[in-house]
Amino acid sequence: MNNYITHLHAQNTGVFEQLDISFNKRFNFIVGPNGCGKTSILKCIALALAPSNSKGFRYKENSAVWFDAVYDEQKYRIGLGEGWVSNAEEYRQAVHQSWKKPPQQDGIISYTVNKLEADNINITPLILGAYRRIEYQKMEGMHREPSVGEQRKKYHSSGVGNIEGGTLPNVKQWMINRYFEIEKDWAAVYKRNWEWIIENLNNLGPENCKLEFKNIKRDLEPMFTLQGIDCYLEETSAGFQAILSLVFAIVEWIEGTNEEENTYIPNATGTVIIDELDVHLHPEWQLTIRKSLATIFPNIQFIITTHSPHLIASAEAGELIVLPKLSRKICVQPTEQCFAGWKTDEILEEIMGVTNLANKEYSVLLNHAMDYVEQRNVDALKEAISQLEKIAHPSNTIIHILKIKLAQLELGDEND
Predict the structure, then answer these.
(1) Does 24 share its domain with 74?
(2) 20 to 30 Å CA-CA from 86: which of 2, 154, 255, 346?
C-alpha cells in the first residue's frame, strides 16, 4: 500500500506569503541557513491536520494550508482552503471558524481532516518535535489501548503541540503492553513486530554499539544491556534515549493507526515527520542514523529537519531539500545533488549558510608566521610555530610547510 505526502502548500500562513515544497516517497532532509523556516514548514503540515491549534501563526483572510498525499492508489488533498480562519492578523488570537476544503484539482480528492476521520482514511503522519529524553515514570501495569480511530484523531491533533512543546508518546507503556501480550493467540502481528525491533537494536547505532533488550521483570522496568552492562531505559545515554524514543514511538504509531493487516513493520507505510533528528546524537551516530531508519522501516516516508552536516553527507541523491535564506516566497523540491564527498566545512558554508568558520586565534598566528617568513625572522617564526602546534591538529600540513621554511631560513643563516 502507498501512503506518503507528495506536496505542501501554504499561503499567508506565518512567515510564508507562499510556500510550495515537493517531497519524494522515502527520505526528505530539509536543510538550510539558521532561521530559514525549517520548523515552520513542519508546523504547516501539523496545522493542516489540527486547525484548532491555529494560534501559533499569524494569517490573512485568504490564508490556506494543505498537503497532497497518496493513499493506496488514490490522491488526496488534506487541509484548509481560504476563509477557514477569523481574527487572522491578530497575533495569537486566530480562531478556526469554518471547515473550508482546500481547492479542488482533477484527479485529487479534497478533504478536511474531520472528513478524513469520518471516512476512515488513514492519512495520519507521526509528527515528533526535538525533545527526545525518556523521563522516569513509575508504571502501574498494562493499559487498555484506544481504538484505531481514536488514535488517528490523537495523532492528528497532537502534531503542533509535539513540535512546540516536545511531548513524546509513552514508549515505556508500549513496551510493557507488548512484552506481556505477544504470547497471546490474538497478538501474532505484535509478536512479529517485537521480534523485528529486538533483532534490529544493534542497527540503531554505530557498529559494535552492542545494545540488547534483556527483560521486563515484576517491577515493570524495561532492562537493556549496553556493552554488556545492565541498565534501565532511563539510565541509557542521551543518544540511546533519543534513538530508542524515536524508534519505539514510530512502532507505537504504526500499530496504533493501522488496521491489523497493515501493521507489520517491514511492510508498513506512512509519513514520519521529525524536527531536528540530530539532537543528542554523537557525530558518528548522525552519519549512520539514516541507514538505521531505512533498515528498520523500509517503506516509511521521512520528512526531517536537521542542522547536521553529517546527516546531510549521509543523504542520497534526491533526498535533500535545500532552503534559501528566510523568504516570504519559497518554492523548492529535492535536489539531485549528493554531498557525500563534501567536507564538513564545505557543507556548513554552502548549505547551512555558516560564515566565519576560521578559528580567529589560528588565523592571526598563521598570518604572523607568514610575515616572519617574509621578514626572515627565525626566532619569531619558531615562536609562532610553537603556538600554532598548541592549537592545531597534529597532522596540520601548513605547520609542516612552515617548519620546512624555518629549516631553509636557518640553513641560509648558517651559509651566510
Answers:
(1) yes
(2) 154
Q: Note whether 394 and 340 are same-domain residues.
A: no
At 359 the pLDDT is: 62
For CA atoms 54, 58, 64, 65, give the dihedral sign.
negative
**Full-model pTM:** 0.83
Report pLDDT digits (tens) over 351-382. 777 765 556 677 788 888 888 988 889 899 99
pLDDT for residue 299: 95
Helix then strand then coil, in percent of the chain rounded to 5, is: 40, 20, 35
Residue 376 in any domain: the answer is yes
Distance CA 212, CA 227 (A): 9
Question: Strand, helix or coil at 167?
Answer: coil
DSSP code at position 9: E
Q: Per the structure block, which three cell numbers stand in for 240?
A: 540511546
Query: ∠ CA(274), CA(280), CA(281), 5° rounding?
Result: 85
Please provide the DSSP assignment of 56-94 as one string.
GS-EEEEEEEEEEEEETTEEEEEEE-TT-EESTTSTT--
Task: At 279, list the grid cell.
Answer: 539532537
Residue 373 belongs to domain spanning: 360-415
Residue 57: exposed, middle, or buried by beta-carbon count in 10 A (0-12, 13-18, 19+)?
buried
DSSP for residue 27: E
pLDDT of residue 250: 93
First to last CA, the chain: 83
Task: Identify whether residues 273 and 403 lie together within a single domain.
Answer: no
Q: Are residues 39 and 111 in the same domain?
A: yes
Q: Could you say which residues of the chain have pLDDT below 70?
A: 88, 132-143, 166-169, 205-208, 355-360, 413-416
Residue 412 in 3-state DSSP? helix
Tell me the HSE value of 177 on the side-chain side, using a 13 A CA sphere. 18
Here the cell at position 113 is 481532516
The number of folded domains in the chain is: 2
Q: Which of 192, 174, 173, 172 is nearest to 182 (CA)?
A: 192
CA distance 14 to 10: 9
Q: Are residues 145 and 275 in the same domain?
A: yes
The DSSP call for residue 254 is H
SS3 21: strand
Domain assignment present for 193: no
Q: What is the sign, positive or negative, of the torsion defined by CA atoms of 330, 336, 339, 345?
A: negative
**Angstrom distance (rounded) from CA 232 to CA 235:** 5
Query: Is there a single domain that holds both residue 393 and residue 364?
Result: yes
Give the pLDDT score at 396.
Answer: 78
Length of the chain: 416
